[in-house]
Design a protein that fits this description.
The chain has 349 residues and is of the alpha+beta class. It is built from eight helices and 20 strands. It has two domains: 227 residues, P-loop containing nucleotide triphosphate hydrolases (Rossmann fold, 3-Layer(aba) Sandwich); 106 residues, Nucleic acid-binding proteins (OB fold (Dihydrolipoamide Acetyltransferase, E2P)). The two termini are 43 Å apart.
């Protein structure tokens, strides 16, 4: 099993009276692709900057391979960072940009040449060494920024929304390239994004954050299929979230109907919340539905139709490859494994 390379213990960060990170604990394994995911202002970039050493925790510790590095300056950590603004040097060619950190360390010239050429090969920019930075596209500049960080052979690479400035098509291409690159170099990546699809596509593990707190930690599959609270369910993909009652193990009531589910371990008649993903709702003839509803809107999304179906006071979002018409009465069914039960979170004033 891989050992833990980074650990954050009881991390708190405040600016004046504002708590930005609120006593969080986390760990990252060697060679893992971990993503810190959450909306703007949730504390994910501040957490990344504490790992890098650019910010000091108000309290708590950062450990690297079991050693406390909280007070160690950034340049003495075996950690490099790639930012959204690549901060490449326009007066240097591509080779010199990548070689910059090695020259600071006074690495021998023949070693610099070998390592820079390896990096250019890794980021698919062979033969680009003498070109100007200004001649590159946004995606190519992003690759150079990553090559400049990786050439120093860090044990951990931090990436702060590095694809944010790219257009959608290029973002998707670079997501796959980044994951392949991480596998090839075999080092730990810690990635910050607010883009759920990006996190699900690339990560081995995701930490979902909101309001300075960790909401859930798990694999992309776990986070998507088994959200632990309404925030995670709503933030990761699209969801129907209904109030319900857990009648007993494997039986839940919501939308005015009793359903079989796969969850257990709740109190009898415990008030819960139910998550149903739109793609898991089966549209059937009304007589075959467990519940029925009226189709209120239909939008074509390319690979499926997105429909809003009204069932009493509830609106169901449904994704289906079969078209139903606005005003049509339809039935809806769910398999037990497609009903996800969450404990109700008590709201504090």
């Amino acid at each position: 099993m891989s050992k833990r390379i980074i650990e954050g213990k009881s991390l708190v960060k405040s600016y004046d009276e504002t708590l930005v990170v609120k006593n969080i604990d986390f760990w990252v394994k060697e060679k893992e692709f971990l993503t810190l995911l959450g909306p703007s202002g949730c504390g994910k970039t501040t957490t990344l900057r504490m790992i890098a050493g650019f910010e000091q925790p108000t309290s708590g510790t950062i450990c690297f391979e079991g050693r406390d590095i909280t007070a160690v300056p950034p340049y003495q950590r075996q950690i490099n960072t790639v930012f959204q603004k690549y901060a490449l040097f326009s007066h240097m060619n591509i080779f010199e940009n990548i070689a910059f950190g090695l020259r600071i360390k006074k690495v021998p010239e023949n070693e610099i040449k070998k390592r820079v050429e390896r990096m250019l090969e890794l980021v698919n920019l062979n033969g680009f060494g003498n070109r100007s930075i200004n001649s590159l596209s946004g995606g190519q500049q992003q690759r150079i920024a990553i090559a400049r960080a990786l050439v120093n052979e860090p044990k951990v690479l931090l990436l702060d929304e590095p694809l944010g400035a790219l257009d959608l098509k290029l973002r998707k291409e670079m997501q796959l390239e980044l994951k392949n690159m991480q596998r090839e170099v075999g080092i730990t990546f810690i990635y910050v994004t607010h883009d759920q699809e990006e996190a699900l596509t690339m990560s081995d593990k995701i930490i979902v954050m909101n309001d300075g707190l960790i909401q859930q930690v798990g694999s992309p599959t776990d986070i998507y299929n088994e959200p632990e609270n309404a925030f995670v369910a709503d933030f990761i993909g699209e969801s129907n979230i209904f109030d319900g009652t857990m009648l007993r193990d494997y039986e839940v009531e919501f939308a005015g109907v009793k359903w079989h589910c796969v969850d257990k371990g709740f109190e009898l008649s415990e008030a819960i919340e139910v998550v149903v993903r739109p793609e898991d709702v089966m549209i059937v003839p009304p007589a075959e539905g467990i519940v029925t509803g009226l189709v209120e809107s239909v939008i074509f999304k390319g690979v499926h139709y997105e429909m809003v179906v009204r069932n009493g006071d509830l609106e169901w979002m449904v994704h289906s490859t079969d078209l139903s018409s606005v005003g049509e009465m339809v039935g809806m069914r769910l398999d037990p494994e497609d009903i996800h039960i969450m404990k109700k979170v008590k709201m504090h004033a």
